[in-house]
Amino acid sequence: MNTITIDGQIRRDGFAVIEHVVDDCEIDSVCETLERAPLERGRAGARHAMSHPVVAELASDARLVRIAQGVLGPNAEPYRATLFDKSADANWLVVWHQDTALPLRSRRDAAGWGPWSIKGGITYAHAPAVGLERILALRVHLDDSTARNGPLRVVPRSHSRGVLTDEEVQQLAREGDISDCIVGRGGVLAMRPLLIHSSSKARNVAPRRVLHIEYSASMDLGDGLELAMA
Fold first, then answer.
1. Cα–Cα distance measured from residue 134 to residue 131, given in angstroms and rounded to the nearest whole number
2. Which end is more exposed in the chain, N or C (fewer Cβ atoms within 10 Å of the end residue's Cβ)?
């Protein structure tokens, strides 16, 4: 795994696909554990998944941490995880957007932060670009992501535009090149939160489960703000 090459691609495009990161037998073990001790689910999956031991263990796996640290620096660590579970029974779409809301330990008014909300008992605020530049998401694929089961779609290089309005996001999605992120089981899609992305409905019944794990260069975001574990 060449972290220098990955870092360069992420800096340029806002994302990179790294295949064969987690072995099949390890993916089997994660899936079996989640079936025996399931997370509390919503329609699209389960948020605040870092509380589950098998998710926390995977998030701290040396292979994933090495990828995150190669982009964010030597102190990068995981702070939030979400299980996305798209199937014939839960076949949903996501419109073009950026990921700008971060979980915080407490509210502290600071320039560029907000609006604020509470989700599942955790304080959230939409962050400015300077805060989001510290973040990298690693999407660990528990199933093959194919062109027919609703893969993530991205607008390459859109992460460099900063935080955009909804109208600006939709315009760039209409005008920009679109890439479908096809990733094999056990592969990882690394992406910046400001990368414009969406997901269409699946066109077949094959499941598409993804653990979306977010890492930060530091839990301290400045201005007295600190990330919460979620």
1. 6
2. N
